[in-house]
Amino acid sequence: MSVRQKLIVVGNGMASVRFLETLLDLAPNRFDITVLGDEPSPGYNRIMLSPLLAGEISISETVLKPRQWYRDHKVTLSLGSGSRVTAIDRSGKLLATANGQVLSYDHLVLALGSRANIPDLPGSALNGVMAFRSHDDVNAMLQAAKQHKNAVVIGGGLLGLEAASALSQQGMSVTLVHNRQVLMNRQLDSVAGGLLQQELEQRGITFIKPARTVELKGCEGQVKQVVLDSGQSVPAELVVFATGVQPNKELAARAGLSCQRGILVDQHLQTSDASITAIGECVQFGEQTFGIVEPVYEQARVAAHCLAAKQAGKKVAFVSPTTPVRLKVTGVQLFSSGDFEGRPDDRILSLHDPHASVYRRLVIREQRIVGILLYGDTLDGNWYQSLLEQQEDISALGQNLLFGRQLTAAA
Amino acid sequence: MTECPPQSIQTTCAYCGVGCGVRAPVAKEAEQLIAVAGDETHPANYGRLCSKGSALGETLIDEGRLLYPQINGYRSSWDQALDELVKRLKQTIEEYGPESVALYGSGQLLTEDYYVANKLMKGFIGSANIDTNSRLCMASTVAGHKRAFGTDTVPGCYEDLELADCLILVGSNTAWCHPVLFQRIRASQERRVKPAKVVVIDPRRTDSCDIADLFLPIRPGTDSILFNGLLVWLALHGKVDDAYLEQSTQGFADALDKAYETSPDIGTVAEKCGLSEVDVECFYRMFADHEKTVTAWSQGVNQSSAGTDKVNAIINCHLATGRVGLPGSTPFSLTGQPNAMGGREVGGLANQLAAHLEFHRPDDIERVSRFWQAPNMVQQPGLTAVDLLRAVESGEIRFIWIMGTNPVVSMPDADRVKAALQICPTVVVSDCIAPTDTGQCADILLPAAGWSEKDGTVTNSERRISRQRRFRPPTGEARADWAILSEVGRRLGHAEAFAYQCPADVFREHARLSALDNDPEARPRDFHIGGLAELSDQEYDQLQPVQWPLRSRTDNGTQRMFADGKFYTPSGKAQFVPIQETISAQATEAYPLLLNTGRIRDQWHTMTRTALAPRLNRHKDEPFLELNPADAASRGINDKALVTVRSSYGQSVLRATITDQVQPGQVFAPMHWTAQNSQTGRICSVAHPEVDPYSLQPDLKRTPVQIEAFHARQHAVLICRDKRPLPDTDYGVLVKGTDCYRYELADTENGLDGLRSELMAALGPHIVQYQDSELGIEKTLWLDDGKAVAVLMIGSEYPTEVDRSWLETLFASDAPEQPSWWQVLAGVPTSGCAGGKQVCACFGVGQETITAAIREQDLESVEDIGKTLKAGTNCGSCIPELRQLLTAIQVEEV
């Protein structure tokens, strides 16, 4: 009987769990697996934090796998701040944890995730200033919502909008500050952004944009006001920063792995050390870092396959997909994919129904769809996405493409 | 279609010369839509109606009605308007003489209107310059009848069409233009053990070919050659009736000699007429072999520079075989208009005197003058239509009164007619409709009572006089034409001569005049309705349809004429007319195609009334040009593309319909569209003003033209809930739908961008919009309170994929649930909703619905379609189209 390889997975988020699931399926008994996570609870679905904050679901519904699952699969699970990895000794294939443990590995998987950007502004350390990343953040925000009236969310991306909407649902008076004119500008154009804003305004959220936050003012350690570059100040007992994330690369950097914005990986998710794989939001693949779940799941799948196939010599490659962003921002359907803005000589199809709050835009280049933006009704998103992915020539589909699959077929 | 309440009025249809009886409910107010039905007791139609007749009730709306008199565009009272009219009339006569006054009337006037107009002009104003649009319709037949029979007499009756063993339709799309007669023919064919042989002679393969055993696609204008050839063939084969020739005719030898010159043998005939020898011989044998042969003709014969000769070439063959006025055996002119015949009877044409009395007989002039007590009796014929308008142009005519017709649309070289009217010092127009092309040239506009408000008589193509009865009060201040004319007569100082109190007064006088000296000893004439001269008012009201002549109160009328072989010529014998070959306008290098014009199934004349009924606009919704695939291909013209058709007189832009139903070298356009509903659809502005030398009827069937593709930069379809002026674009057509108006537009520049801004300003910013940057497509939907008020679709190409009939249904007040606005902008209904282009106007059944039913329910016959969808079961005029759809699908499936 051969000795089982020791595999350590650092991180217990969505990438980690999807990786484990795949690997256990492919090679159930080959590895002796340990998972280390610095949050106290088992891995949870970060996408569910918004409904959790809105009070729509309970914590248990966010959990990805219960502890029993790890036991059933003979995976050692070590959670809590003590399990945080502090150093990696690559030459000795060892790592150290915060509580002084030293573990050896044959192969190491880093799924370290990312953290929120909280800019270094005057007052950013005041109580009531936080990010929106974890169960702890949600708990703190729920607490604040019980005690206070005014919240300011900084950042009009997806996360910021969801936070604002959830806090509004919790009864707070919410102002959202965004540094651009268009909300969710990485996924939406001005028309769709305008429709979204209109929708959220109807739910009581106030928008100030474009505006930058220059200072947070407080009283007795508690934040009280957000000061904007215009000089305007907005009352706030809770300030949530949703201004983007940065990959957690520091541990890897200290260990001498090649890093830029994130931990650099190749198409097999291998770092500059052949014994170390990295997946999820901590990695950088080419120029890309990752913030949405689909490519992360794909990385987890590819990494598991590569590891399982090591002996057979077969390797699967990761190709960063043109992943559509399918979002449901507080009940509003959104679908954004590819180059939805397009170039000046692209063919643009657009459809705007302000009454039904429906907007559609397709960008077509050389008879192929290269960009999709759907707001309000995303039923045809998957169809367009398949046309985009397969680079299908759309000239045969007639003039009613933008009206959807049914009306295209009816024409 | 719909059951009428028992208390209904019997009247007659307003449209074609068939003169169908109609039942209409009595209405107290001009309000809701009225459903009419065919009068099952009327001998013209026995209850049948065509699509136009069925929709009569839908045209009884206020939209477009001329409600009150106007002087120079301003409302006036009747008194002011008549004062102004009479003042100008007197001044004109004083300064320029009575010949400077003209009246241009219409085959849609009632006999009583016509009679008073004729009397006023010829007896009291003293000008014979009274002509009518009947000149465009059947003047050649009048001339032909007179040359052959000595009088303008239709020998036969409708029953003959059913009794004939051989039926020849010449230049007559009976299926579309006289649909009820076509139904009667079809029904009799179905009843008969041995159906009649049917020959259709027409340059176009029309829907009338649906019942044809033999179709002769004749080269335009060569009908006389064909019938001359028939005369020769009959003579050579011993098929002439020698006894009849001897007893009842004169001039056979001369006619035969001339015929032999043009048409010596079948080979020559076939060559000249563009037909196969086999077909020509087949036709000649059919004619020869059937004692009971009816040759029926319409505008294809009449509207020709050799129209009168064509009529006589046909009549010659009937005379040679003794087939005149016998049951199922006669030449038969199918008149175009509802009362062209009545007009002929009163003498309402410039070269007729009155009541079949003639200018060329001085004693006739004296008779009429004495009868009318006329102070200013005319002594010679006046100017006929084309010349009359030329005299307006030259300034010889300085006062023209146009009644119930639209010469700016219907006359050839129509732009010149319009220009002439624009410079004429006084133009009076009486009409029931306000916005007409001709009305826009008027100085004085008089509101005339329309169908349903008018009361009088009409005569149909078989000499049958019927009462057209009033069943609604006049709209606005409208008055009957006879009453307006009489009032003018009285204001000119002829109180006694124009003292009529009611139409019956006029009719009795007309009947008395027809009987004046009308006896073998004095001045025998065919037209004699002396039997009606003593009708009481009540008897007049209750008058049942009756065929003239009827010479006494006990006379029940006359079904057929000339069966005795006696005619109204000086010798009492019918005259053969030698027919020469006529050289009409030919295609040239510059104008290589021949333009034919004519009617479509669901419109009447210049659409002033039929276009008010949405369902009549669905069959053919845009003015179009039919052309052969070969002519289209050589010019790069696609189906549905816009095409410019141009003659040396004018030009028109139309939608191309590519079909092999027209032959190479020929094109066809409908005559209906006007400047009110199209920018460029007035085809008569292209038509040449050539006329027949005898009848002076214009040749509207063969104008040399050129065509080319019309290149538009933008195309658009606009549908609005409320009517808007036709936008000033290079191409534009207005189509009335149910509770909406549709505009088909195109522009060579970016003229439609302005339209969008205009609509935005007018209709507000509540829009849904679609854009395609590459195809230049912009679709905009305007909403008001959640309902569509307008949708505009602009693109660089004609939006063929947009299902207009479906889109229009969204605007209907009784529209079912609204679809999504996207679907509206896509312009395509999801499956199941699409009806497609309308085929059956009576039940509103579209082509898609029919083809789907044929495919899915395996329908095999027109009867199956009728049982399943009702299509074709009312007027039946769509049956040829249903059959074409069936055949197309059956061919496809084989």
UniProtKB/TrEMBL annotation, chain A:
The keyword Oxidoreductase applies. Residues 326-391 form the NADH-rubredoxin oxidoreductase C-terminal domain. It is an enzyme of class 1 (oxidoreductase). It comes from the Bacteria. One of its GO terms (molecular function) is nitrite reductase [NAD(P)H] activity. Gene3D superfamilies: 3.30.390.30, FAD/NAD(P)-binding domain (3.50.50.60). PANTHER family: NITRITE REDUCTASE [NAD(P)H] (PTHR43429:SF3), PYRIDINE NUCLEOTIDE-DISULFIDE OXIDOREDUCTASE DOMAIN-CONTAINING (PTHR43429). This is Nitrite reductase [NAD(P)H]. It comes from Parendozoicomonas haliclonae. The gene is nasD_1.
UniProtKB/TrEMBL annotation, chain B:
SMART domains: Molybdop_Fe4S4. The keyword 4Fe-4S applies. Pfam families: Fer2_BFD, Molybdop_Fe4S4, Molybdopterin, Molydop_binding. Its cofactor is Mo-bis(molybdopterin guanine dinucleotide); [4Fe-4S] cluster. Keywords: 4Fe-4S, Iron, Iron-sulfur, Metal-binding, Molybdenum, Nitrate assimilation, Oxidoreductase. GO terms for biological process: cellular respiration; nitrate assimilation. GO terms for molecular function: 4 iron, 4 sulfur cluster binding; metal ion binding; molybdopterin cofactor binding; oxidoreductase activity. One of its GO terms (cellular component) is membrane. It is an enzyme of class 1 (oxidoreductase). Residues 6-64 form the 4Fe-4S Mo/W bis-MGD-type domain. Its EC number is 1.7.99.4. Belongs to the prokaryotic molybdopterin-containing oxidoreductase family. NasA/NapA/NarB subfamily. This is Nitrate reductase. It comes from Parendozoicomonas haliclonae.
